[in-house]
Amino acid sequence: MSRRITPPSFISTETVFIKERFKLIIYFYTKNDCSLCDKGFETLRILQKTYHFSIEKRDIYTQEEWLEKYHIRIPVIETEDGIVLDEGIVSFNHLEEKMTHLFSRE
Description:
Layout: E1 2-5, E2 16-19, E3 25-30, H1 35-51, E4 54-59, H2 64-70, E5 76-79, E6 84-87, H3 92-104
Parallel strand pairs: 3-4
Antiparallel strand pairs: 1-2, 3-5, 5-6
Helix pairs in contact: 1-3
């Protein structure tokens, strides 16, 4: 069951879908016109089919703190606990290994 919510202004303008069965939210820090971000997001979406987590896209230009922290590192894939799973050139194999470890702890 999905429900549509309107994200706060600091989250990307895209509508965020929360699947109630998903316990984990992964933050995806990005910006417009970023080909590395597009490729990284696609990799994350592929892994989402196996590991069942929600993705919250965050545009780094909507929060000064995010811009300072991530501007030369994007895309950055991070857990709610602040664990960076991957950044920059996102590797499917590296990210899958991190996901396997992350989900084995649950």
